[in-house]
Design brief:
- The complex is a heterotetramer, with two copies of chain A and two copies of chain B.
- Chain A is mainly β.
- Chain A has two domains: 50 residues; 121 residues, Sandwich (Electron Transport Ethylamine Dehydrogenase).
- Chain A contains two helices and seven strands, in the order H-H-E-E-E-E-E-E-E.
- In chain A, strands 3, 4, 5 and 7 form a four-stranded antiparallel β-sheet that branches. In chain A, strands 1-6 form a two-stranded antiparallel sheet.
- In chain A, strand 4 and strand 5 form a beta hairpin.
- The longest helix of chain A is centred in the first third of the chain and has 10 residues.
- Chain A is globular.
- The relative contact order of chain A is 0.21.
- By secondary structure, chain B is mainly β.
- In chain B, the strands form seven sheets. In chain B, strands 17, 18, 19, 20 and 21 form a five-stranded antiparallel β-sheet that branches. In chain B, strands 22, 23, 24, 25 and 26 form a five-stranded antiparallel β-sheet that branches.
- Classes of the chains: A mainly beta, B mainly beta.
- Chains in contact: A-B, A-C, A-D, B-C, B-D, C-D.
- At the A-D interface, helix 1 and helix 2 of A face strand 13 and strand 14 of D.
Chain lengths: 182, 383, 182, 383
């Protein structure tokens, strides 16, 4: 059990048994190389787990088949995610929380949808202009590249082209189907 | 190097698709079967906060708004490093935020403001500059409405005063010196109460222009050295409930020009006091005037432990002046708050990172725990 | 064992045995009613404990007899202290760290000096103009009064009369001998 | 109410005593036997950082400066929320800090600056405004000196460029577009290296006015998709050492117009690679050019785990290309740094709140642990 898992266990032990699922994502360090966390997103890993046993409706505007919980870091679209899940911050997996601004410039990942076995190109758009939401921190590095190759790097605050580059949270939009993991 | 930036003008779907096509043509990672309409992001709006909504404010997470029924976060209102409370105006659809900014973060030119955030978009729509005197005390009662049109802001330099802002006309009205008395505890009409170091409370009336029109003091009913009242007062319809370090409960009722202070009763029996039981915490007690229930964080400790967190929650009825339930907390908590409606929820904050227990106030039964409400428990402000 | 103690134990267990002394001060909550902590001083309680077994020289300019470690929250002058100990932040118990400004307005406490059994009036001056130092958080409430009685309240950021009221840390100056605990 | 504020003009001892007398006359808590000279507070100055000093920067604690020999904190240099590294200029006694501020904290008007802090007083003495393009990547190489007189600042909008500031004349010189290549890795003379997404490095020369005078690329020596080099490069006298995700070590040597890239060697044997051992972390490796030792945080994991923290530290000699010691960490760490002198100390950061282990670099022996270096480990910048 690593340090963050221990921390988590101590902090929430006994309070609510349901809060223990998802702890494995805690092993993911606080990152964007620490920058998002630096600005306050260190409420590590497992995120604001659902309080109620409802399956959230993640039906995409695109009409592609969906399964999974957009408030969980395990959700398939988040395979190259880095930051706070907007779905825990007053937004959804495709919409920014009130009063923030959707960044028009993004990094991308290629994720496999378990519902149809196909791969999709995912755009990770930061929602900008407020301090970090601080909930449901999620950091996955599938296909992540170094910073000098920005389009595939989630270690950058992608608040470009917005009024403020303060980072709040991130959404995951399906752009297109793609044949292979890129 | 293959650049792969997505640049799409906001809400300009056509632009996105054009760029997307360009992008996909560049995307070397695999051929693309693009039949799909790409998803466009959007930005949510927020409904008017319900009776079971609250905001957490503290170290990080400052301004995060939650719906205690669903357990979901609804949004975040921007606060400054020095903001310790906000004021919700349901009628105007505004959240007023007292804020202090420096041009260089922690140094440079200082600007003190009341920022108007519209509830729907949780975004700043106006600001009124106020004297650079906003108090830096972490306390709920640094901001409160006074009457229908004014907001009072508590100043400390360390001289104590109150700045008045007109939220209808969006301008600074003036400053009222309140030497020796602190905070803004609103009363019906254009009137507010303050607690004073000489053991009294002070009531100040504003005229319809927001200027002071009357001021008077209660009798002295506590001794600052012997047993001061906490600086946290609890709202009732025609006054405020005060609690002393030793657990004495005073009801202050303001009726016309009369300030009545009730004979105190005690949260602790003599036996409990002998066992060392006392109130304590950062936000150590709370009150619902609909059900006349008072909830206190209790711990066992000596004098000067008025900020120690509670190990138990005790619930009282202020009419019968008797305790209802008590329960033990898994972890000590310094923060308790209750919703203001007739079917109240009780919020107990603790942990690092912090979470908030949502309980049925009538019974104390735990309904659920909202995780990640902030890094430290900070304060909970019921809406 | 309360939560913060547990946290501390988990975080530092095994790293360095010497770091365990002083943990009892952890029971003191992060405070100035959370404000100092809000601004970043939540590196709870026990503080940056001395790494070396040296007895620090706390000899006062006043020439009064001294004993104790000014980097420890237990040090006698800190009986009504609230904040970060400047002695852990690049200053001493009587001097501000470089680049901060000594607040001329303070709150006071009356503390008993164990070296001579006498009581002294102590002035707690905040050092201002930088973010909280974040080390050696110390909160004691002996004689502490509510905020509406400011001169005896340590729940106020006492950066008045300085260029910036950003809180960094606090020193403890002996003002005078006094006959009884006030 | 008895007011008891101490107001003394800075360093004005007489004023203090006058007020103090007044104060003591008011002090009702007991009669006073005031023979004592009251203590006056003061403000420290800081010496020039030694070879074993470092700064931590991360979430909170940003800019805290420590002496690893004594374990004491020496002071704090002010940084902005978006600062990820600073540049120490021992000759001029300055610490240069790239900083971005908004007039309203997280919104409002943006200002990007290079702030000059004098080492002695750790206070801002000058600032140079630069284009509002400072990169928001948490990385050491966003700022570095170029030659004796210039500072390079890495921009990303997301277009990549470098702003040049003249620290002698304290003015902004200009901006150099560096499309496809990132960071500022200084080389002897007025010259710096960048790492490029096409698998090359780029070297740019400045003339004596700080303008670009030459630019050239190395051969392509890595593949961004197959096995990219980390964006963290390690300084050697005439070039930089690069490490790939799979642990290949390249030495880049720049000699006149020639950019030589060595044949790579590997941090892991085939057997270790088969066991899944690989480099990872936020600041995953470090290098001391005096002793030619490279230290890496190693963990067992699959592809794409290049940011996972290390469970062990492995020490290598880059001349023999062989490993010296290895040791296991109590808690995984993502941050390692070594001092730059001939008798180096090794710093390993971890924990929440964070602490830094100080170890003898030659042996790995733990000397002591510096607690409370920040809330999260963040980065460690050796001075």
């Amino acid at each position: 059990m690593n340090m963050l898992n221990k921390l988590h266990a101590v902090l929430w032990s006994g309070l609510d048994g349901r809060i223990t699922r998802g702890t494995r994502t805690l092993a993911k360090r606080v990152s964007r190389r620490g920058f998002v966390s630096r600005l306050g997103t260190l409420l590590v890993g497992t995120g604001a787990l659902p309080l109620l046993p409802v399956v959230r409706d993640a039906a995409a505007a695109t009409g592609i088949p969906e399964m999974g919980d957009p408030q969980s870091c395990d959700y398939w679209r988040y395979c190259a995610f880095g930051g706070n899940l907007c779905s825990c911050c007053g937004g959804t997996h495709t919409s920014c929380p009130p009063g923030t601004e959707l960044s028009p410039v993004t990094w991308v990942g290629t994720c496999r949808n378990p519902a149809d076995g196909k791969h999709y190109l995912i755009s990770y758009n930061d929602c900008c202009g407020k301090e970090p939401c601080g909930r449901c921190y999620c950091h996955r590095t599938e296909g992540d590249k170094p910073i000098y190759y920005p389009s595939k790097s989630n270690n950058i605050l992608w608040c470009f082209g917005t009024d403020s580059h303060a980072y709040h949270c991130t959404v995951a939009l399906v752009l297109s189907e793609t044949d292979s993991p890129g | 190097m293959r650049t792969l930036f997505l640049r799409f003008p906001r809400q300009a779907r056509r632009g996105l698709l054009a760029i997307l096509t360009f992008l996909l043509s560049l995307h070397a990672a695999g051929s693309v079967a693009a039949e799909l309409e790409p998803e466009l992001g959007s930005v949510e709006t927020m409904e008017t906060p319900g009776a079971h909504w609250f905001m957490t404010i503290g170290f990080m997470g400052g301004g995060n708004i939650f719906d205690a029924d669903s357990g979901e976060m609804k949004g975040r209102v921007r606060v400054s490093d020095y903001t310790s409370a906000v004021s919700l105006d349901r009628d105007r659809g505004m959240i007023y935020v007292p804020a202090t900014f420096y041009s260089r973060g922690t140094y440079g030119e200082r600007t003190d403001l009341l920022v108007f955030n519209d509830v729907e978009n949780l975004d700043a729509v106006a600001e009124v500059e106020v004297p650079k005197k906003l108090a830096v005390v972490f306390h709920r009662a640094v901001i409160n409405p006074i009457g229908e049109r004014f907001i009072g802001l508590y100043n400390m330099t360390p001289a104590m005063s109150v700045s008045i802002v007109d939220v209808e006309n969006r301008n600074f009205v003036g400053e009222i010196s309140t030497a020796g008395c602190g905070f803004i505890y609103p009363l019906p009409g254009r009137r507010f109460m303050q607690i004073c170091g000489d053991g009294t409370v002070q009531v100040i009336d504003l005229n319809e222009d927001g200027e002071e029109s009357a001021r008077r003091r209660s009798r002295a009913f506590f001794d600052i050295d012997e047993d001061p009242v906490f600086d946290l007062a609890l709202a009732k319809k025609d006054g405020w409930v005060l609690v002393s370090f030793e657990g004495k409960v005073f009801e202050v009722t303001v009726d016309g020009r009369n300030i009545d202070v009730s004979r105190p009763w005690s949260l602790v029996t003599e036996e409990q006091a002998a066992e060392g039981w006392r109130v304590g915490g950062d936000q150590p007690f709370t009150y619902n005037d609909e059900t006349r229930q008072l909830f206190a964080l209790m711990h066992q400790g000596g004098p000067d432990t008025h900020e120690d967190p509670g190990t138990e929650v005790w619930a009282f009825n202020v009419d019968t002046q008797r305790r209802g339930y008590r329960f033990e907390l898994e972890e000590p908590s310094g923060v308790i708050e209750v919703s203001r409606d007739a079917d109240p929820l009780l919020y107990v904050g603790s942990g690092f990172p912090a979470s908030v227990q949502v309980r049925r106030a009538n019974t104390g039964r735990l309904l659920h725990v909202i995780p990640e409400t902030g890094l430290t428990a900070g304060h909970i402000q019921a809406f």
